[in-house]
Amino acid sequence: MHAVQRLHQYRESISTRPFKGRGYKTDRCPNCRISRQHCICPHCPTCHSEAAFLLLMWDDEVLKPSNTGRLIADLIEDTHAFIWQRTEVDPALLALINDPQYQAFVVFPQEYAHPEQQVVNQVPKLAANKRPLFILLDGTWREAKKMFRRSPYLNHLPLLSINISSHSDRYRVRKAIADGQMATAEVAAQVLSSFGENDNGAILDLWFDVFSYHYQHGASHRYQGNDQALAQLQEAVAQRDSNKLLSQ
């Protein structure tokens, strides 16, 4: 069980009433949160990454089956997840951000940077004893902006602004309000590529496609997504593994 699954389990345990979002009557797999008939768990790939992720999630976001933050945790072992709170900050969250083994980056558009906040457009070269910790604000766009504005403990961290030329239309589970707004897993895939882990970025992107396609089938959406996503994912994983063997 990874960090997002544990957080989902915790959030359900403290709920005073069941979460009744769209499709709440669907019989879902407890892990991938897709209808059991279209469960993707047996197809989950493995990835080795030098990156770490921290998902700061809006309170209800962790309960939504359409959330894509869990896809990051599926692939990247060093993924952490916390529920955002305005007035009470989890000490474990602050400890993680300040852990000397990491260099934390807030992933957000540069036009929202706070005064004096350092902005970078790609991951800089880090000291040998440092690994990047990418902080993603996981919620709707309105919620993400609120988390960014009201989390002063993030203000001193460098802001990583990924240049995204156009909005992807692959994700129709929830519609973006404006161009350039991407699902959390899509952003993480771009971040991995910016860090130089192109294979991991491509595999996460395809894992996102697999999720989107099967989720929509289970929800009977009219738009069915990339029907070749699973085959493309398997091909990408096989190619990555073959390249590793050749390089040894």
Could you please describe the fold and organization of this structure?
- 35% of the residues lie in helices and 12% in strands.
- It is built from seven helices and six strands.
- It has a six-stranded parallel sheet, with helices on both faces.
- α2 (69-75) packs across α5 (184-194), α5 packs antiparallel against α6 and α6 (198-219) runs antiparallel to α7.
The largest pleated sheet is described as:
6 strands, parallel
Give the rounded overall mean pLDDT.
Answer: 88
Q: What count of domains describes the coordinates?
A: 1
Task: Report the portion of residues in β strands.
Answer: 5-15%
Write down the overall geometry: globular
Low-confidence stretches: 174-180
Would you count the extended β strands for me?
6
Keywords:
single chain, alpha/beta, six-stranded parallel beta sheet, 7 helices, 35% helix
